[in-house]
Amino acid sequence: MFQEKQLSIKKIFEQLSKSIIKAFYLLLGGISMYSIFVLGTAGSGKTTLVASFLDWLRNKNLYTISINLDPGVINLPYTPEVDIRDYITIEQLMEKYNLGPNGALIMAADLISTKLKEIINEIEDYDADYLLFDTPGQLELFAFRTAGPYIVKRINRIKDNRTLILYLVDSSLCYLPSSLVSVLLLGQAIHYRFLIPQIDVLSKIDILPQNDFEKFVSWTDEPETLKDAINEELSGIDRIIALKVADILVEHGSISSLLPVSGLKGTGLENLYAMVQRVFAGGEDYRTE
Ligand SMILES: Nc1nc2c(ncn2[C@@H]2O[C@H](COP(=O)(O)OP(=O)(O)OP(=O)(O)O)[C@@H](O)[C@H]2O)c(=O)[nH]1
Ligand SMILES: [Mg+2]
User: Fold this and answer.
1) Is the pLDDT score of 256 beyond 90?
2) Which of the four pLDDT bands, split at 50, 70 and 90, describes residue 285?
3) Is the minimum distance from the CB of 44 to ligand 1 under 6 angstroms?
4) With 80 as the cut, is the pLDDT of residue 198 above it?
5) Is pLDDT above 60 for 286?
6) How many A from CA of 79 to the centre of ligand 2?
7) Could you tell me which of 49, 122, 174, 229 has the fewest CB atoms within 10 Å of its CB?
């Protein structure tokens, strides 16, 4: 009984000191909420990374919540504090509007924005420091229809909040230099849909054989080696265009800053956190630094 009382007093003190620090920070004009949207092609490891980064941040005593924006997901390896499925589910839409699964997914992607007010209310009630957003499997539904950028913009406008995107590049999709270039080009397209800071992450690196991993490291460390590989792989107009695209990617920093991570094994999370900090602290798009 006495121990329980001691624990609850300790909790109250912790909460109080946290609020005081937060109030000081706000008075100094600081930021108190950091939102991270995890995007990537279907199966690129978004949900797994949200789960492992969530654990990692919590182990660092950072008050973090997760928000699931995928109405179609059945099982999650984490328990989201805020869940779009409390408002919209694919099954309900299929039944109500007599839609097939794809039609329902498209409709759901558009409908998320109509539930935004409720979602933002829920988020604000938590008053968390870090927010991890898991997004729908079909990247194009979130990034290229109007609702996704609208949602990100609205969250970004919450007072004292900063937002960034983690764009996951699936390791298994980019063994060839041309594949890496095309998937990073997609990352550029994503950037121009949201126009907020973005970190490109090479996900699932644990599946890469050591020599392929080293090849990626050399491509990111010395982009000239990527261009050599393009020269070897391609010919004619494809080679010329791929080299030009590689130049753009190098100029925008999306090759040199590609961050290797494994959500499954939890590797690279320390570096991911450091990069997130750098972007949030700078308040700038890291690509323009
Ligand atoms: N080896 C390995 N597998 C991973 C990793 N991350 C995810 N996976 C596997 O890849 C598959 C898809 O992972 P998810 O985390 O569901 O990927 P997602 O991007 O959320 O998938 P959708 O939401 O369906 O698009 C699962 O079988 C995961 O176990 C990783 O870092 N390494
Ligand atoms: Mg997912």
Assistant:
1) no
2) very low
3) yes
4) yes
5) no
6) 13
7) 122
Check pLDDT > 90 for residue 49. yes
C-alpha angle 277-145-82 in degrees, rounded to nearest 5:
55
Say yes or no to pLDDT of 255 above 60.
yes
- Determine the length of the chain: 289
List, as own/partner pairs, every contact residues 184-190 make where C-beta atoms lie below 8 angstroms and the sequence separation is at least 24, other chains included: 184/249, 184/254, 184/255, 184/258, 185/245, 185/249, 186/41, 187/254, 188/248, 188/249, 188/252, 188/254, 189/143, 190/39, 190/139, 190/143, 190/165
Q: How confident is the model at residue 254 (pLDDT cuts 50, 70, 90)?
A: confident
Domains in the chain: ranges and CATH: 32-206+254-284 (3.40.50.300)
Summarize the confidence of residues 224-251 as an average pLDDT.
95
Pocket lining: 99 vs ligand 1, CB cutoff 6 Å: no
The kind and range of the H/E element at 42 are none
Return the DSSP state at 159: T
Would you say the pTM of this structure is higher than 0.85? yes
**Cβ of residue 260 lying under 6 Å from some atom of ligand 1:** no
Q: What share of the chain is helix, strand, coil (3-state, %, to 5)?
A: 60, 15, 25
Q: In the prediction, which pLDDT does 245 show?
A: 95
Distance of alpha carbon 115 from alpha carbon 151, whole angstroms: 10
Ligand 2 center–CA 71 separation, angstroms? 10
Q: Nearest to residue 170, comparing CAs of 162, 179, 161?
A: 179
CA-proximal residue: ligand 1, atom 2 (nearest): 204
CA distances from 285 to 33, 182, 275 (A): 17, 22, 12
Minimum-distance ligand 1 atom for the alpha carbon of 168: 19
Name the residue of 37, 41, 44, 48 to mutate for ligand 1: max ligand atoms within 8 A of Cβ. Answer: 48
Average pLDDT over residues 49-73: 96
